[in-house]
């Protein structure tokens, strides 16, 4: 495919992204109608015993003992689960066996076809492994995931892309207005049109999208995190939201007995785990941009100052600090693993694949003797390649 460049007319100053070139619900969710059982993620401490909520996983303890950030996020999780549960009830009332209908009408000139094709190309270009995983999903689902991916990528590029220095809060306000328009069925461009179509077909709520934009706002003004609670909120904004956006599309296995809330909770945990891993991998790179995405109080507990982070020396204190951070990221991966098997069977492979690959980055940081200042932790091609069949085997196992 040939490389072309697509400028966004609405945001010419923001960035250009390079591209190589109804029915009611589309997912069938069968839920156990029982009170929500959500884990709370006690964010302050690091020892396993100090995480009363985290390790209870899918049968956790609700609001009790939650930090302010957790409560904020917990409310969004409940709202997302309610949206999905409402759709299930509607479907049951209609007594329909709802089957996904092709989101692409048969008209060969249809712009929607083209819109999804572009989303597909962006996804293939920027996230090859993940793109391969999506090919296993049903056509409707993969198109929807591509559309969500593209919106997330564009949002992230606003603060991380080449035009990031020119981004102002008002540009983000305009981006949010555009989001509202998408949800009202008034897309601004082709890529927006794909998302507008997606959100009209799947029970997806706007809140995680708004929250991701809030995360970008946060990134514009904030370069330090006092404690893990602050960092947790940031991770939710920029990555936990992705999990919440994805579950309504991926669907929950009809044979699953887990509550909708617990599956959303696992998805949230996977986003947090991925973002924490990203942060730990990129400490040196971020420091060179004057940023430290590490809890300041925990650095202090280990006798590490800001200037130590900027000087980038791997000391025993640093190794000890990093061990704890890696342990926390792994806990979030562990929670998320409990939810993957509950997803619809066609959706599990890309999730297992991305989970396995991201998790291995933590191993690679350890293998680099915790030098995340000058050595980039990465998963080699062969390891990546081998992870795919392993993920596949896990994906075909029935829900626990
Ligand atoms: C199947 C699957 C993995 C679906 C998610 C697809 C999707 C919509 C991805 C959007 C990713 C994106 C562009 C997010 C923007 C913000 C951002 C950059 C977040 C970081 C991702 C990695 O980014 P980057 O490309 O910069 O990384 P590299 O430097 O190239 O390594 C994040 C770290 C967050 C990504 C978060 C997720 C993919 C959430 C995953 C959770 C689910 C899919 C839910 C699964 C469900 C259960 C029940 C566990």
TrEMBL record:
<keyword id="KW-0125">Carotenoid biosynthesis</keyword>
<dbReference type="InterPro" id="IPR008949">
    <property type="entry name" value="Isoprenoid_synthase_dom_sf"/>
</dbReference>
<dbReference type="Pfam" id="PF00494">
    <property type="entry name" value="SQS_PSY"/>
</dbReference>
<protein>
    <recommendedName>
        <fullName>15-cis-phytoene synthase</fullName>
        <ecNumber>2.5.1.32</ecNumber>
    </recommendedName>
</protein>
<dbReference type="GO" id="GO:0016117">
    <property type="term" value="P:carotenoid biosynthetic process"/>
</dbReference>
<dbReference type="InterPro" id="IPR019845">
    <property type="entry name" value="Squalene/phytoene_synthase_CS"/>
</dbReference>
<dbReference type="GO" id="GO:0004311">
    <property type="term" value="F:geranylgeranyl diphosphate synthase activity"/>
</dbReference>
<dbReference type="InterPro" id="IPR033904">
    <property type="entry name" value="Trans_IPPS_HH"/>
</dbReference>
<keyword id="KW-0808">Transferase</keyword>
<dbReference type="GO" id="GO:0046905">
    <property type="term" value="F:15-cis-phytoene synthase activity"/>
</dbReference>
<dbReference type="GO" id="GO:0009536">
    <property type="term" value="C:plastid"/>
</dbReference>
<keyword id="KW-0414">Isoprene biosynthesis</keyword>
<dbReference type="InterPro" id="IPR002060">
    <property type="entry name" value="Squ/phyt_synthse"/>
</dbReference>
<dbReference type="InterPro" id="IPR044843">
    <property type="entry name" value="Trans_IPPS_bact-type"/>
</dbReference>
<dbReference type="GO" id="GO:0051996">
    <property type="term" value="F:squalene synthase [NAD(P)H] activity"/>
</dbReference>
<comment type="similarity">
    <text>Belongs to the phytoene/squalene synthase family.</text>
</comment>
């Amino acid at each position: 495919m040939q490389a072309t460049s697509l400028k966004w007319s609405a945001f010419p100053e923001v960035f250009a992204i390079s591209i190589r070139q109804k029915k009611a619900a589309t997912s069938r969710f069968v839920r156990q109608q029982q009170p929500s059982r959500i884990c709370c993620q006690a964010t302050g401490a690091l020892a396993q015993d100090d995480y009363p909520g985290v390790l209870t996983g899918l049968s956790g303890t609700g609001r009790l003992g939650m930090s302010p950030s957790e409560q904020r996020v917990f409310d969004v999780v409940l709202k997302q689960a309610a949206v999905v549960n409402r759709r299930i009830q509607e479907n049951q009332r209609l007594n329909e066996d709802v089957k996904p209908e092709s989101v692409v009408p048969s008209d060969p000139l249809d712009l929607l076809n083209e819109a999804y094709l572009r989303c597909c190309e962006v996804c293939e270009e920027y996230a090859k492994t993940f793109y391969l995983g999506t090919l296993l999903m049903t056509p409707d689902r993969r198109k929807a995931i591509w559309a969500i991916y593209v919106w997330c990528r564009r949002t992230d590029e606003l603060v991380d892309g080449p035009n990031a220095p020119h981004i102002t809060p008002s540009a983000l306000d305009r981006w949010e207005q555009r989001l509202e328009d998408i949800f009202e069925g008034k897309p601004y461009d082709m890529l927006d049109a794909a998302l507008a179509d997606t959100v009209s077909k799947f029970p997806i709520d706007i809140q995680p999208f708004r929250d991701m934009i809030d995360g970008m706002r946060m990134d514009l003004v904030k370069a330090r995190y006092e404690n893990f609670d602050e960092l947790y909120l940031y991770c939710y904004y920029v990555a936990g939201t992705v999990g919440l956006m994805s579950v309504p599309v991926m669907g929950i296995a009809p044979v699953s007995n887990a509550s909708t809330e617990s599956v959303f909770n696992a998805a949230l945990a996977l986003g947090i785990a991925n973002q924490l891993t990203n942060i730990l991998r990129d400490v040196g790179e971020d420091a060179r941009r004057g940023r430290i995405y590490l809890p300041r109080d925990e650095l202090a507990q280990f006798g590490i100052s800001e200037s130590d982070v900027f000087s980038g020396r791997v000391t025993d204190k640093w190794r000890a600090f990093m061990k704890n951070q890696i342990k926390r990221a792994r806990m979030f991966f562990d929670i998320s693993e409990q939810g993957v098997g509950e997803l619809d069977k066609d959706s599990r492979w890309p999730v297992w694949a991305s989970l396995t690959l991201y998790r291995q980055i933590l191993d690679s940081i350890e293998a680099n003797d915790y030098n995340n200042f000058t050595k980039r932790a990465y998963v080699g091609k062969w390891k990546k390649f081998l992870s795919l069949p392993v993920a596949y085997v896990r994906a075909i196992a029935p829900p626990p």
